[in-house]
Amino acid sequence: MDKKTITIVGAYNIDLSLKGQRLPALGESVIADQFIEGAGGKGSNQAVTAALFGADVKFVARVGSDSYGQYGLDMYKKLGISTEFVTVDKTVHSGIAIILIDNNGKNMISVAPGANLKLCKEDIDRAGHVIEKSMLAGFQFENDLDTVFYGLRMAHEKGVLTFLDPAPARVISEDAYRHIDIIKPNETEASIITGIKVDNITSAESAGRWLVKRGIKTAIVTLGERGAVLVEGNTARHFPSPSVKAIDSTGAGDIFSGVFMSALASGKATAGAIEYATAAAALSTTRLGVIDSIPSPEEVGNFILKLEREKQ
To answer: Fewer beta carbons under 10 A from the terminal one: N or C of the chain?
Structure first.
């Protein structure tokens, strides 16, 4: 097993973002101040982030045979992310996401999955030997759910650490929990999955305990600017998020996941990986876009040092 290799199974989208003073109401048109186009998709964002933070990343995905798909392939090659298991599907367009952002960094997103929904069990099987040699396998819910759960089960049965970012939120079948080692829902996703309304640290801990009782080893419930709650076994811990001037929260959760997985692969313990990922995610919200907002490891390190000095 290569302790630094991460295989991420997930979606690639092209993100078309409009930033304005506020989000429109139903039926309303609002003039935007800025347009941003760039690569997205939860799996892709996490793969790119993990690679930028030093992990050897293998990405399993589907893109369309269009300019958007080629853009993604070129980006992966530039970053050293293996594209051996990124299939170009000539029958459908690449995934498209339309993102609206207000001046407080809040967003609304609509996605046309395209090729992402064509990812299938055969794609997972083709990458099976790479998954088996990985330290960790990461998944999200932007692909066909049967394919996602098939991949989780395969990886877990091969003894590979499994990580699930359950977004967009879906109810998880009882028999699937035992194949998930680490789950990282945000407050909305945790609420939908567990039935517990998550709106503070206490309820996030309750949701985490609910997940652990179903066989998951580690539950991390993220709370945006309030940080994250870790539940493992009978223990729970809150990790506050650094205070920053956020202008765009798009992709912050993916950056958290990518940094967290990379940190685990580098040998960090769970708590240290969460602290590192929380700092990186907070920094990312101070910039527009997703890929362009990913901070460098050096920036995160300096940010953490600054925070530690301020505490003294």
So the answer is: C
Distance CA 186, CA 246 (A): 18
pTM for the complete prediction? 0.92
Residue listed under structure tokens 């991949």: 151
Q: Encode pLDDT of 138-170 as tens digits.
A: 999 999 999 999 999 999 999 999 999 999 999
Residue 204: pLDDT band (50, 70, 90) is very high
Instruction: Find residue 9's DSSP bridge partners.
Output: 60
Q: Measure the CA–CA gap between 17 and 264, rounded to whole angstroms.
A: 31
Give the residue numbers marked as catalytic. Answer: 254
Number of residues that make up the chain? 312
Q: Report cis status (omega within 30 of 0) of the bond before 166.
A: no
Query: Contact, 202 vs 189, CB < 8 A?
Result: no
Side-chain-side CA neighbours of residue 140 (13 Å): 27
Is 238's pLDDT higher than 60? Answer: yes
- List the structure tokens of 178: 């035992």
- Is the confidence at residue 265, as pLDDT, over 90? yes
CA distance 185 to 91: 32
Residue type, 194: T
Q: Which two tokens stand for residue 177?
A: 């929990």
